[in-house]
């Protein structure tokens, strides 16, 4: 039986596709130039599936302390990932770099046109059964900021969007959606804002029927690839990011427009790393071909991030100022859990010299696994490298959202239901879509900011739902949140 073409994990000594050791080598490569001892610890780890959070912390800690080495670290990690995962074509394993230089076929080009209201739709935000706009939306943004659900720059950007409705006429923008049908993606909004869209998603009739209907209801134009020999219609549109990676990049380049590329695709398990690397290969190829190429990312808050001193000290203060009753109850819970429950979130600051002091938020959810963490880390690395190379990058941390892929995990679904008891807001997909679409518009319309510390790019406009300002390490209270969520469901 022939193997599926496209990006694959490498074969191990037993001839099986392996994810653990290659993942360790990729992380070690990113660490090597910052902390050789920590890099050696990564490659020596025997229980990567459960122990990876400690190594993620070591990586981000080293980057936070050595800002001048951050971009080199990210480049090393990406280079390792490109080297580790082969691209299989006609049964032969090629390097990803070689495959990207040699696309094998061309796509036809299909255009879909919206027939809805010609004027850009007003930006509104659906939230808890209400459609917020104007003053009501401004007040909700204020509440989110005051509650620590989002960071100040996120709230400020949303206020800017309220003040500039003219920004939402995107007829001058060419926006690529890698994973156009993504549940958490911005297609539904962009289709109402006159954008010139380019959609990439699998050639599945049901997916493209939904995409085509969304476009038809709006006022945008969407360009899509269609395989040679297929009828030039929406039912036959689509391309496989994993198998058609070089061809997609070549087709996008052939459009001859300055593109802003959103990396949105998600796949379960180890395939998430592969599709993230495929999007990375496309993004890197387009960046190399055109200096005007821009990149956009929607990051998860359930990761490790270096955060500025103000946020870190707020977390430390919240832990120190717990009431006596809470301290006693949580002391008992910590004892009974072997120290794992109600662990303090941030205990020390990292001295980055002239670049200030930084804290580490550790919101990794072990159940999501090292492959999920690796997939999101690849996106962070490309964002850092692309920005250093002069490309504009929109990097926005989106709040935890009740997408189908997330709530399919019973523990996470229960934890989300119980999160409110800890001051964490979990967002509905429609709310996240509206907020993240506006954030992308803001970053298309405003001048990029300069950050002394490269890692500030990743957290400046974060909407983490309050997860990062928890006084407790999030996974140390996840079991309690899940218990509350199971009770709530009943």
Q: What's the quick description here?
A:
The protein is of the alpha/beta class and 490 residues long. The chain has two domains: 102 residues, no CATH class; 321 residues, 3-Layer(aba) Sandwich (Rossmann fold).
Describe it for me?
It comes from Roseateles saccharophilus (Pseudomonas saccharophila). Residues 1-22 are annotated as: Disordered. This is DUF2156 domain-containing protein. The chain has 490 residues and is α/β, with parallel strands linked by helices. It has two domains: 1-102, no CATH class; 107-305 and 368-489, Rossmann fold (3-Layer(aba) Sandwich), CATH 3.40.50. It is built from 18 helices and 15 strands. A hairpin with a 2-residue loop joins strand 2 and strand 3. Helix 10 (245-254) runs parallel beside helix 11 (271-289) and helix 16 crosses helix 18. It is globular and about 70 Å long.
Provide the descriptors you would attach to this structure in a database record.
490 residues, alpha/beta, Rossmann fold, 2 domains, seven-stranded mixed beta sheet, three-stranded antiparallel beta sheet, DUF2156 domain-containing protein
Task: Give the SSE map.
Blueprint: E1 6-7, H1 20-32, H2 36-44, H3 48-65, H4 70-84, E2 87-89, E3 92-94, H5 96-100, E4 107-113, E5 125-127, E6 130-132, H6 134-146, H7 152-163, E7 174-178, H8 187-190, E8 196-200, H9 205-216, E9 221-227, H10 245-254, E10 260-263, H11 271-289, E11 294-299, E12 304-308, H12 309-320, H13 324-336, E13 350-351, E14 357-362, H14 369-388, E15 393-397, H15 404-407, H16 410-418, H17 429-445, H18 474-489
Parallel strand pairs: 7-8, 7-10, 8-9, 10-11, 11-15
Antiparallel strand pairs: 1-2, 2-3, 4-9, 5-6, 12-14, 13-14
Region (Disordered): 1-22
Organism: Roseateles saccharophilus
Protein name: DUF2156 domain-containing protein
């Amino acid at each position: 039986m022939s193997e599926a073409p496209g990006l694959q994990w490498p074969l191990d000594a037993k001839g099986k596709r392996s994810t653990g050791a290659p993942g360790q080598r990729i992380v070690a490569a990113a660490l090597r130039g910052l902390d050789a001892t920590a890099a050696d610890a990564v490659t020596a780890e025997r229980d990567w599936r459960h122990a990876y959070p400690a190594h993620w912390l070591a990586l981000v800690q080293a980057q936070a302390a050595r800002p001048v080495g951050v971009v080199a670290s990210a480049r090393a990690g990406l280079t390792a990932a490109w080297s580790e995962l082969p691209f299989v074509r006609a049964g032969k394993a090629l390097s990803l770099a070689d495959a990207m230089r040699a696309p094998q076929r061309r796509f036809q080009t299909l255009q879909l046109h919206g027939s809805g209201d010609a004027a850009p739709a007003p930006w509104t935000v659906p939230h808890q059964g209400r459609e917020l706009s104007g003053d009501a939306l401004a007040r909700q943004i204020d509440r989110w900021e005051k509650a620590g659900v989002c960071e100040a720059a996120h709230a400020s950007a949303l206020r800017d969007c309220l003040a500039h409705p003219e920004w939402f006429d995107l007829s001058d923008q060419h926006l690529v959606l890698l994973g156009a049908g993504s549940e958490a993606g911005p297609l539904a909004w962009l289709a109402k804002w006159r954008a010139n869209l380019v959609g990439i998603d699998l050639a599945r009739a049901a997916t493209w029927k939904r995409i085509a209907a969304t476009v038809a209801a709006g006022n945008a134009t969407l360009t899509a690839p269609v395989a040679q020999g297929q009828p030039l219609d929406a039912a036959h549109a689509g391309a496989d990011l994993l198998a058609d990676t070089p061809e997609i990049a070549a087709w996008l380049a052939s459009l001859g427009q300055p593109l802003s590329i959103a990396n949105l695709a998600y796949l379960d398990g180890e395939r998430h790393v592969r599709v993230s690397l495929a999007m990375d290969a496309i993004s890197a190829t387009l960046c190399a071909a055109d200096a005007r190429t821009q990149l956009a990312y929607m990051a998860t808050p359930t990761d490790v991030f270096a955060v500025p001193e103000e946020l870190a000290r707020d977390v430390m203060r919240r832990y120190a100022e717990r009431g006596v009753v809470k301290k006693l109850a949580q002391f008992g819970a910590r004892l009974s859990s072997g120290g794992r429950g109600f662990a303090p979130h941030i205990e020390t600051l990292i001295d980055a010299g002239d670049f200030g002091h930084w804290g580490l938020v550790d919101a990794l959810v072990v159940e999501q696994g090292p492959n999920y963490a690796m997939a999101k880390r690849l996106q962070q690395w490309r964002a850092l490298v692309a920005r250093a190379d002069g490309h504009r990058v929109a990097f926005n941390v989106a709040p935890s959202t009740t997408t189908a892929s997330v709530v399919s995990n019973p523990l996470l679904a229960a934890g989300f239901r119980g999160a409110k008891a800890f001051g964490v807001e979990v967002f509905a997909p429609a709310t996240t879509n509206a907020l993240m679409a506006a954030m992308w518009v803001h970053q298309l319309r405003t001048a990029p900011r300069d950050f002394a510390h490269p890692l500030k790019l990743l957290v400046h406009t974060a909407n983490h739902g309050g997860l990062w300002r928890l006084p407790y390490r999030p996974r140390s209270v996840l079991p309690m949140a899940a218990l509350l969520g199971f009770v709530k469901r009943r």
